[in-house]
Amino acid sequence: MVVNMSDGRGLYIALISLHGLIRGKEPELGRDADTGGQVLYVLDLARALAEHPDVSRVELMTRQILSTNVDYQYGEPLEQIAARAWIRRLPFGPHRYLYKEHLWPYLPQFVDSALVHFREIGRVPDVIHSHYADAGDAGIRLSRLITAPLVHTGHSLGRVKQQRLLEKGLTQEVIEERYHMSRRIEGEERVLKRANLIIASTQQEVDEQYGMYPGIVRKKMTVIPPGVDLGRFRPPRKGEKFKVASVIDRFLEEPKKPMILAVQRPDERKNLETLIRAYGESESLRELANLVLLIGTRDDIDTVSKSQRKVLQQMLRLIDRYDLYGSVAYPKQHSSEDIAEIYRLAASRRGVFVNPALTEPFGLTLIEAAASGLPIVATNDGGPQEIVRICSNGVLIDPLDADALSRNLFESITDRTEWSRRSRAGIRGADRNFSWNGHVAQYLKRIKPLQRKRRKTTTVPRAQMALADRLLVCDIDNTLIGDREALAEFLSWLDGHRHRVAFGVATGRVLERTLSVLEEWNIPRPDVLITGVGSEIHYGGQILVRDLNWRRTIDYRWDTLSLRECLANVPGIRLQPARDQRDFKLSYFVDRFAWPGTREVRKRIKEYGLSASVIFSHHEFLDLLPIRASKGRAIQYLARRWGFEMDEVMVAGDSGNDADMLRSGALGVVVKNHSSELRYLRGRDRICFTEWPYAHGILEGIDRHGFLPEDQPNLE
C-alpha cells in the first residue's frame, strides 16, 4: 500500500551520495577518502534547502550499511536531520562497508530500492541531485525512469586527479588498479552529457577542470559556491576558553606559539608529505610556530585502509626523521564540533590555516577557516584561487614547492599587520559571499526552469509506475484491440482510475509497430511497453526511455548468428523481415503443416550447444529469445523493480505468446476469443477465462479478480 508522507506542496529534492558513511550528528569526517568535506556539503545543503519555503521535502539518499565494523546508525533506514529533511538509507550491495570505487556493480540495486521507496512514500522527486560519479550514474538511471531533471555536482574529477597522480610519479597501471580511474572517468563523461544542470563551486573548476572533458555543454553549467554554517564557524571571542586545547597542547612543548593548522583526510592527493617537509626543513619556521595536523580520525593505524595507512605511516616517519616531537600535534580523534573550536584556538594564537592539496575543487575548510578569522596559505588550484580572490585573506602556493610553502607560512605569521588585515577580510568575505541562504536562493533559481520544461515535455509521467496501486498489462492484438466499442469502454474505465492504475501493453510486435497500432486505435501511450515478446521494455511519455537494466539482465548466452545457422535448414520456417528482428529476438514465419514442431526446434538448438526460449503463437509465428527473456519474466521484473506485489499486477492475453505472462504469478485474464493454445491453462489458480471477448473481457477480469482494493473477487 502506498502511503503519502508529503503534503504535496513545494519541491521534493533527492540528494544522492552513495558511500553510506553519512550521519546527521557527529559525522565521521576524515575517516577515509570518502568522508571529507563533501559529507558536510551534502548535510548542510540538505538542511539549508529544507528551510526554504518553496521546498517541502529533502532526502539525502545513501547506502544502508549493516556491519559491526561501523556505527549502528549507518544501518538505520531513516534519520531526520531537519524539520523537512531526512537521511534515507537504502539497501544495495553487501552488508559491509565498501569504498565508493567498489559500489559500481551494485548501482542498479540502488535504483530498484529507490523506486520501491518512492512508491512507499507516495511521491517521486521533483529534482534528483547526484554527488560524485557513482551517484551520477545512478542518477541518470533514476531520472530517466521517473522523468525528473538531474542536477550533478562532481566535487572531485577523475581526469584532474589522474593528471596530478601522474605528475607525482604514479604509473597509469598503479592509478587504474588503485582507483579504477577509467570506469570513473567514463561515468563522469556520461553524467556530464546527460545531466540537465551541473553545479560547480568556482569558475576555475568550470574552465580548467571540467574543461578537460571533451564535448561538455557550457550552458548546462553554473557556479554556485558552497555555504558555511556561520553559527558554528566564527572568530574567537576575547577571553574565550577552549576545551579542545588540552587535546592539542599535550603534544607541544611550547603550546602558546602560533599554530600552523591543517585539516585533511589521509589521502595522497592532500600532499601532507610536502607540508611536513616544508616545516621540518625550515629551522626558522620550527622556532616560530607549532604544526597541528588533524588527519582524519582513527583508532589504530593497522585497521585503516592500505592507502590511508601509507599516508599515516609516512607522516610518522617524517616526524621522526626531522625530530619534530614537541613541535607537531597529531591527535587521533576529533569531532565536527571540535573542528570549529580548533579553528578559533588557532586564530586566538595568531596562526594560519594551510591547504597544500595537489587538487582542490573547492575546499570547504578554507571557508571555515576564513569565517573563524584564520588567514590561509593554500594550493594555487581550483577553489582556493576563488576564495583568496573574493576574501583577500591569504596567499596561494605551488603545492610541490616546499621552499615556497615554508617561506609563505613564515611571512604570513610574522607580518602582524598583514595577519590582522587578512583575518578581518576573511571574516567579512565569508559572511558576504559564502552563506547557505545565498547558495539555496541561486540553486532554486536555476532548477525552476528545469521544472517548467519537465511539465511541458512529459505527457504521460513515468512517475505513474512508482505511485500507482496496481499494474495492468494487456496483450494488444485480439485482446486490447479488435472491438472498438469494447476498447472505448475500457479506456473510459482506465481514465477514471489513472490515479491508481499504471497501464502497460505486452506484445510480440516490435516497438515501432506497437506505437503505430496504438496510434491507429487512438490508445493513449501506456506507462510501460513490453515489446518483441518480452525482449524489450520501454517507459512511456513523449520521449520513450528504454529499460537498459532489462537489456543487461537478458543478455546471457545469446548468439543470434549461431541460432540462425542452427535453424537454416529446418523445413517449414522462414525468417521474418529485418524490421521485425531485434537484438534479442529472432523471428520466423511458420508453415504449421511443414515444420517439425517446437519440440524438434528445441532439440536442435540444444544439440548445437546453444540456448534460447522457443515461443510458437497464432499457429504461424515462431520467436526465439534469450532464456531470461519472455513476457512473463518481464512482468516479474517490472513488479520487482517498481515494488508491486504479484497480486497487485493483472495481465490479460489471448494467444500462445501470452502463456508465459499468464503463468507469471500475476492475476491472469484469458479473454473469450482466445486461441486453442491457451486451453491448458483453464482451471489454473489465479487465471480466469472470461465470458466476454476483447477489451470487454479485460473489464470482466478486473471485476472477477477484484483487482482494485475496494472490489471483491468473483471467480465463479
Number of strands: 26
Whole-Å distance between the termini? 27 Å
How does the helix and strand content classify structurally? alpha/beta
Helix content: 25-40%
Q: What is the residue-mean pLDDT, rounded to a whole number?
A: 92
Low-confidence stretches: 1-7, 712-716
Q: Supply Rg.
A: 31 Å
Summarize the main sheet: 8 strands, mixed
Strands side by side in the biggest sheet: 3-4-2-1-5-6-7-8
Q: Helical stretch count?
A: 26
Describe the global form. Answer: elongated
**Percent in strands:** 15-25%
Q: What keyword list fits this structure?
A:
26 strands; 716 residues; eight-stranded mixed beta sheet; disordered C terminus; alpha/beta
Task: Describe what is shown at a glance.
With 716 residues, this protein is of the alpha/beta class.
